[in-house]
Amino acid sequence: MEILQAESIYTIIVAIITVLGSAGAWRYYEKKAEAKRDEDNFMKYDCRERIAKLEALLERSSDEKDDMRDKILVLTEEIAELRVKVNFLEAENRRLLEKR
What is the mean pLDDT of the chain? Predict the structure, then answer.
């Protein structure tokens, strides 16, 4: 009978250690999974911030490009006007030189 009781006590002790160990292991894996989730969330938020900054930069760059395109069109028109004036002045200069 004593052997049976000793075995029962050992079985109970082993069961308690197993339960406590399992609970500790469960908490460890739970914390590990939570840390990974937090890291993933941090990466998501970090990427969102970077994407927002890049989108703002792209939009600003696009606006600058449009402004530059408009300025180039204005300058091209002015160059065309100046060419016409130069041609007219050269023709007028030749006419005046021939009149002499």
Answer: 85
